[in-house]
TrEMBL record:
Binding-site list for substrate: M170, V171, V172, G173, Y184
InterPro entries per the UniProt record, alphabetical: P-loop_NTPase (IPR027417), Thymidine_kinase (IPR001267)
Residue positions of the active site: E87
PANTHER family: THYMIDINE KINASE, THYMIDINE KINASE, CYTOSOLIC
Species assigned in the record: Occultella aeris
This protein's name: Thymidine kinase
Gene Ontology annotations for the cellular component aspect, listed alphabetically: cytosol
Length: 215
């Protein structure tokens, strides 16, 4: 028996760190895995965590066929017990279906990691397929926090710290980007709906305070 597990959460909640830990744990017990990622912030053919660890990975492209990736390795005599699939939100729905087939017909565990929704709170097509097909969906224990202290459940895209709602679904980037840059910030639903990032919430009001004429 093998499983397709989707580990999900907001940006910056520890998914890539867990992906590296899962690989380490399984590998040290003698299991053989293959690590995949797509558009990691650190560059192509990498899986990197903000904690500073990075390992080589097979870069997923539009041409990647996971069924062929596993069959090809096995026909060359390579053992494949599990796949680590990071940034899975960027995979095509057909590739998620290939992963499900790899689990069911080749008995390979697949551990997929990714965010579910984009900066407009719309599901990524790959994540939607994972939610539909996974044996288990696990929400990460380390919960990211909104600037207000509530649990962060949404990913905002920012330009110069200000939330934007227009743009391409896929723009690779990091949380905490500097002024002027496209970046991301995790927010609670209330502040995502209000478009209120840390920078805009703490910015002084653009209009001066009214004069106190009471005295
Ligand atoms: N210097 C640090 N010390 C301790 N924890 C850190 C540090 N930098 C980042 N983290 C933790 O790393 C996590 C982000 O890890 P990462 O695997 O890159 O996230 P994700 O893949 O979900 O975007 C956050 O939960 C944060 O708490
Ligand atoms: C919300 C959102 C995110 N992205 C990108 C930004 C990052 O490159 C990755 C998420 O990586 P992480 O390891 O989970 O931090 O996704 C995007 O392209 N579009 C979006 O709407």
């Amino acid at each position: 028996m093998a499983d397709l597990v989707f580990f999900s959460g907001t940006m910056d909640c520890g998914k890539s760190t867990l992906a590296l830990q899962m690989d380490y744990t399984h590998a040290t017990r003698g299991r053989r895995g293959v690590i995949f990622s797509r558009n990691d912030r650190a560059g192509a053919e990498m899986l990197s965590s903000r904690l500073g660890l990075a390992v080589p990975a097979v870069e997923v492209t539009e041409q990647t066929d996971f069924w062929r990736e596993v069959v090809h390795r096995r026909t060359r005599g390579q053992v494949v017990d599990y796949l680590i699939c990071d940034e899975a939100q960027f995979y095509a729905p057909e590739q998620i279906e290939q992963l499900a087939r790899v689990v069911d017909d080749l008995v390979v565990d697949v551990f997929a990691f990714g965010i579910t929704t984009d900066f407009r709170t719309r599901l990524f097509p790959g994540s939607a397929r994972l939610l539909a097909l996974a044996d288990r969906v696990e929400v990460l224990q380390v919960r990211a926090l909104c600037w207000c202290g509530r649990r962060a459940t949404h990913n905002a895209r920012t330009v110069g710290g200000v939330m934007v709602t227009e743009g391409e679904q896929m723009v690779v980037g990091n949380t905490g980007a500097g002024t002027g840059e496209v970046g991301y910030e995790v927010l609670c639903r209330r502040h995502h709906r209000a478009g209120l990032t840390a920078a805009s919430a703490h910015a002084p009001s653009p209009s001066p305070d009214p004069l106190d004429l009471s005295g």
